[in-house]
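Problem: given the chain below (373 residues), write out its structure.
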Amino acid sequence: MTEQPLLNEIKALIKSSGPMPVWRYMELCLMHPHYGYYVSRDPLGREGDFTTAPEVSQMFGELLGLWTASVWKQMGSPQLLRLIELGPGRGTMMADALRALRVLPPLYQALHIHMVEVNPVLRERQSATLSGVRNSITWHDSIDDVPDGPGIILANEYFDVLPIHQMVKREDGWHERVIEIDPNGNLQFGAASEPTPRFDVLLPPLVRAAPVGAVFEWRPDTEIMKLATRVRDQDGAALIIDYGHLRSDAGDTFQAIARHSFTDPLKAPGQADVTAHVDFQALARAAEDVGARVHGPVTQGDFLKRVGIDTRAAALMSKATPEVATDISIALKRLTDTGRSGMGAMFKVLGISEPRLTGLAGLSDLEHAGGDK
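Solution.
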């Protein structure tokens, strides 16, 4: 049996301090300084645990580069633009975006690249991927460390790994969901003995009406408010792409993925990617609350089609061998299809901007989910 130091540590913490809230368990699984999943490995690609959109096709990053260019023009083409990526994986998306941006020398020369990444293994991969880039590239542990200035923030599959609180509805109110130890010494889900006072006051009507036994997930607004405040005060926009739902609703989406398959999130802490769906209505509401403008959300399939993925695919296929053209066609379907194997409907795209930017490419102000409309 393999050693599980993090599992042992979590059990010791529960024995000494009592049941552990789901958010704390998730935080330890991902960010424990020695055994955290995101601190110690490269989880991407065929050999890893999951594949992100930039790893599926170069078209994804290229189109985000062109989207960046359109926003830069709307901003009045500032002579300095901080292009900030949160959780940049292997650097693939940034490399593809920068390749597309080379066709616009005034913008390319204005770029200062900022990579927000805590994983030293991935930082090395990003550095290697971007080794040919002449722009200034700086790595940071947090967006708080990125210098001031007009900026465009790209966050692809970033919010889904931020720890969630889970609440369980009981007859007497909403109780925090916790991790505890069962009689056989294994981890199991439980609930705090006392309800959280007045928790339902803050809930959207749809969630408040959920039946007894329902689970509701929420994330603190800290991270989205940082992004929204930055673009509001310093000019620019943020693009958030993740899997999740358009409206706040009850449901348990806490999951673990290892080797491209779902696994029990309580079985091997620190050895699988634990995530939960993103509540885009909550993100939009928090961004609006600090005075930023919200655009969308729309599905990834719609967004990519609006910014020209079909045209880009056709251009690449026209110059490709039949085998490569087939690969491009498969990648296009994977990124835009709405079926189970496609990312087109499951993933959503949300834009947040400085209030003067009234429209962003691929997103419509008419479709945002900021309120209970």
